Amino acid sequence: MSDLRDLYQEVIFDHYKKPRNFHPLAGANRKAEGFNPLCGDQLTLYLKLRDGVIQDASFEGSGCAISTASASLLTESVKGKTEQEAEVLFQGFHNLVTRDAAAPAPDLGKLEVLGGVREFPARVKCATLAWHTLHAALANQVETVSTE
Amino acid sequence: MKTTASEIVAVQAAHGEFDVSRAREDFPILMQTVHGRPLVYLDNAATSQKPRGVIECESRYYATLNANIHRGLHDLSQRATEAFEAAREKVRCFINAADTKEIVFVRGTTEAINLVAQSYGRSRFKPGDEILLTEMEHHSNIVPWQLLCEQTGAVLRVAPMDDVGELLLDEFEKLLSPRTKLVTVAHVSNALGTVNPVRRIVDLAHSVGIPVVVDGAQAVPHLKVDVRALNCDFYAFSGHKLYGPTGIGVLYGKAALLEAMPPYQGGGDMISQVTFAKTMYNTLPYKFEAGTPNIAGGIGLGAAIDYVESIGIEAIAAHENDLLAYATRCAGEVSGLTVIGKASEKAGILSFTLEGVHPHDIGTILDHEGIAIRSGHHCAMPIMDHFHVPATARASFALYNTREEIDALFHGLGKVQELFAQ
Questions:
Q1: Which residues of chain B neighbour A41 with C-beta distances below 8 Å?
Q2: N or C terminus: fewer CB in 10 A for chain B?
Q3: Which of chain B's residues have a Cβ under 8 Å away from the Cβ of A13?
Q4: Is-contact A70 A51, C-beta < 8 A?
Q5: Closest Cα partner for B374 from A16, A42, A97, A40?
Q6: Which residues of B touch A (CB under 8 A)?
């Protein structure tokens, strides 16, 4: 089960069982819905954006361990980032969960615990749902984002 | 105490039932390992595995018989036509239809239902007409009717189920009204396993002159289906869930209804005479089989029916019912496990949730144990809404599954709980 442990790392269980920033956000000026119709994962992401900087981020919803932990980690990691920095992080994260393990990658800090997802192609959508939703929130899209 | 495989074989031998370990040898795919573990295939409601006889039959068709049917004067074409039509006769006999002209080959259940919606419904439904279905339908028995509603102004009415997953027949009856023009119902629910009382539904609908469509995708592999005993007007099923090839399925329709319906698609094979002024349509069932059909698939489906009949659908049903009862008992011993769908009459499906673990995580962890189940909404989102769950995990059984495999499933679920307990 060693490769399963790569996917289900302790940090992921921690964020699944105790998701951070798991509430609606008072004063949020960006909001987007994410939905994975395949597994029923759904989340709402809230951002408080001022002068191009993400002052605060939170989410609500229900999903599997991977999607919940990913959303929780996302809200922690984008706080204080500019929109542009958040987009760079999105690209970096996307590469992390889809790239060849040998390819060089930027330092993503805590987000790297989700790197194990790359060995589980069926679960990549779980890990990226929150990030696609972030992308939509930053682009100020109002419609639900689907991973399908 | 768990029963061992050898004890099961002994019990089966004593009851004169089929030998599951011998049957397993007929399915080449079951011999493989997945992630280093013997494959335990419990996703049969999605598609069943194929016995060697079906695989070889399709291969033999292409190697020795391939030609287009119903049009060639040459020997190959005639032999291919005979083989295809022999398969139609096997289907007729298998579901006890009155005539082969009532057996229309289609791609699968989905296409069969779309055919009825578009050919039967579109030509006669008017704004305000009602189509009555149940809360436990698969999306393929919802969406074709919604498309029809958009086209005609007809509306859907939904008969509710209770919290064990049984149709509320009283409510169903109340929803039958002079506006109702068609009833459509799953014989067996793919997400819950509920066996619906189709004959009673048909009687209720017919008493007020309403025809009934039955989605038999999950029923045909698990119980004896007799369309004349059911007295339904249409019955749809897929070959690939019945140990046959993908891309082939059947629409049974009563001849009088099919005769009165316009063609679904236009093309070759479905005509008798074409001029630019007017086209005469072919007779049944060819009127509904435009274009070159899935010839190899049809013949392969015939081989699958031969295989099922060599064991006997009753023996298969008895074996699967034993597996379901055993799995349900095992499920009752797992804390935090909730069975979704506890109808008194079920076939082949154990749908469940595990407290604190999303079904997708269950699916991934079981996969690493070599166990294939399905996680998700099973193309039945209204059922998920009813039970207030985003998804379930589903183990579904076939003739080649064993109690040992169910032990492996529950051993795997123990590992899931262990991992998530940390």
A1: 358, 360, 390
A2: N
A3: 420, 422
A4: no
A5: A40
A6: 356-361, 364-365, 368, 375-377, 384, 390-391, 415, 419-420, 422
B44 occurs within a structural domain: no
CA dist., res. B285 & res. B112, Å (int): 13
> Which residues face B212 on adjacent strands?
B183
Min Cα distance B368 → chain A (Å) is: 7
Quote the number of domains for chain B: 2
B93 is catalytic: no
The alpha carbon of residue B327 is apart from the nearest alpha carbon of chain A, in Å, by: 24
Do B126 and B160 fall within a single domain?
yes
Count CB pairs under 8 A between chains A and B.
52
Q: Of B279, B309, B339, which residue is a domain's last?
A: B309
CATH code (residue B351): 3.90.1150.10
| Ranges of each domain in chain A | 2-146
What phi-psi label fits residue A48: left (phi over 0), alpha (psi between -120 and 50 degrees) or beta? Answer: beta
Is the CA virtual torsion B94, B97, B98, B101 positive or negative?
Answer: negative
Q: Is B175 a domain residue?
A: yes
- Closest approach of chain A CAs to the CA of B261, in angstroms? 36
For A16-65, the pLDDT digits (tens) are 999 999 999 999 999 999 998 877 789 999 999 999 999 999 999 999 99
B420 contact residues in A (CB cutoff 8 A): 13, 65
Is the pLDDT assigned to residue A100 strictly greater than 80?
Answer: no
Residue B160 belongs to what domain range? 55-309
Task: Read off the tokens for B224.
Answer: 């004896």
| Residues 6+ away with beta carbon under 8 Å from B341 | B164, B165, B189, B191, B192, B193, B194, B349, B351
Cβ contact (<8 Å) for A3 and B391?
no
CATH number at residue B241: 3.40.640.10
Query: Residue A76, exposed/middle/buried by CB under 10 A (0-12, 13-18, 19+)?
Result: middle
At a CB cut-off of 8 Å and minimum separation 6, what does B275 contact? none
Fold of A2-146: Sufe protein. Chain: A (3.90.1010)
Contact (CB<8Å) B368/A1? yes
Whether the pTM exceeds 0.95: the reply is no
Same domain, B263 and B332: no
Give every CB contact of residue A102 below 8 A, 6+ residues apart in sequence: none
Beta strands in B75-193 (DSSP E): 103-106, 130-134, 155-159, 180-186
Using a CB-CB distance cutoff of 8 angstroms, which residues of chain A are in contact with residue B415? Answer: 1
Q: Is the ipTM of this complex over 0.85?
A: yes
Cβ of A66 within 8 Å of Cβ of B360? The answer is yes
Note whether residue B190 is domain-resident: yes
Q: At what angle do helices B5-14 and B403-421 cross, to 10 degrees?
A: 150
B391 neighbourhood in chain A, CB within 8 Å: 39-40
Residue B37 forms part of a structural domain: no
Of B358, B419, B422, the CB nearest to A63: B358
